[in-house]
Amino acid sequence: MARRSDHTREELWWLAINASRKVVEKEGLRGIRARQIARDIGYTIGTLYNLFDDLDDLIMQMNGETLDQLMQECSKVELTQNPNMDLERLVHCYLSFTHENPKLWNAIFEHKLPEDRPVPEWYSEKVSRLLALIEHALAPILSGRSDAEIHQHARILWMSLFGMTVLEGSGRLQEGETSLMLAKTLIKTYVDGLKNAP
Amino acid sequence: MARRSDHTREELWWLAINASRKVVEKEGLRGIRARQIARDIGYTIGTLYNLFDDLDDLIMQMNGETLDQLMQECSKVELTQNPNMDLERLVHCYLSFTHENPKLWNAIFEHKLPEDRPVPEWYSEKVSRLLALIEHALAPILSGRSDAEIHQHARILWMSLFGMTVLEGSGRLQEGETSLMLAKTLIKTYVDGLKNAP
DNA sequence: CTTGATATTGATCGCTGATCAATTTATTTA
DNA sequence: TAAATAAATTGATCAGCGATCAATATCAAG
């Protein structure tokens, strides 16, 4: 039966997203099932499809939520204008998050939209905002360079960190190796390279 | 009807793997369908399940084949004992492969076995052999430092390259960005950092 | 109280991965 | 050569999936 007054549309959205997150945290992306999530939030499958276009949409929104949470954490980091320190703090924050939410983080790169479906703009923007944090921290040592160059270095660092988290997530780090240690060495060496570049 | 003499078991295996590769090359992992692959090789679904435990098994074997091909390519690289040149050649070979086979490469990281199912040993070995090859070529550039240090820097570079290929494979690079360009900047900057480290 | 807009339902569709008894073929044995 | 054994192949079958949509129930406005 229709129960429009039980929850607002927004409340319903959050119920569904949180139910999805719980499933993924426990079983990974594989565990996502429309009927199960509908059941979890006390509605039927039809209502779920009234909220989301399809499962791809739901997963994208859930992943967007994960990006938002990471952004919120990283925003707390106090910047000192010392690139080495600022980056290290950001990286620590980033890696803490991925370490504490491995399955949710994995979902972000495990999930692939169908070929013909472009990544929504609102999603790309969330990613861009995270990148901007790194760019901002890098800026002081790259003051004489073009925006494009700053942007590229930020993206390189981002992708490198990303590689570490993926390999950590799939258990391919060695004994005694942590992504935090590796990332610290990466940042230190890379920033040295930027400072002393010809 | 049974046609045991049409193809040997091994021939059948290759037919199925190649059919799967073709599907993935065109449509990505999403496109893999048991019935379709069976049809493609001129047999029925039952025969496919006589060859593979399930679709996870088939995909793992297909991915193993991709790893083998990359290994074969990288093995062709002539080593000159000039670390800089060897490194560049190997990285070029690695990135060329992932660039030319983005969907197949991506399938390796998109696919996740169910939680309770361990990665087969034969698969882990393929990955390890590949990692060892790349580490070995990266290591000489860091001579003069402790083995542990060399090892760590080599792995950091490898993981960073890895992150770029994954993001490239999933279509997350920007317009005009290539993993080769990014990798060159990464390596140049990183090596600068190593040379000029305090 | 009536009307219109919206939320919700659940039966339904076409598909999927996977199973397995029955059938057909090849090989081995007598 | 003929019968017995082993192996490969089939396809009907099952439970479950994502997705759709006409019917229904509820709420808000007139």
CATH topology of the largest domain in chain A: Tetracycline Repressor, domain 2
DSSP summary, beta strand count of chain A: 0
Instruction: Report the biggest beta sheet of chain A as strand number plus sense, adding barrel if it closes.
Output: none
Q: Percent of residues of chain A in helical segments?
A: over 70%
Q: Going by CATH, what is the homologous superfamily of the largest domain in chain A?
A: Tetracycline Repressor, domain 2
The SSE string of chain A, one letter per element, is HHHHHHHHH
- The unreliable regions of chain A are none
Could you name the key traits of this structure?
Tetracycline Repressor, domain 2, homodimer, 0% strand, Arc Repressor Mutant, subunit A, mainly alpha, 2 domains, 198 residues, DNA-binding
Mind explaining what this structure looks like?
The structure is a homodimer of 198-residue chains. Chain A has 198 residues and is an all-alpha fold. Chain A folds into two domains: 1-52, Homeodomain-like (Arc Repressor Mutant, subunit A, Orthogonal Bundle), CATH 1.10.10; 62-195, Orthogonal Bundle (Tetracycline Repressor, domain 2). Chain A is built from nine helices and no strands. The longest helix of chain A has 23 residues, at 147-169. Chain A is elongated, with a radius of gyration of 20 Å. Chains A and B meet through helix 6, helix 8 and helix 9 of A and helix 6, helix 8 and helix 9 of B.
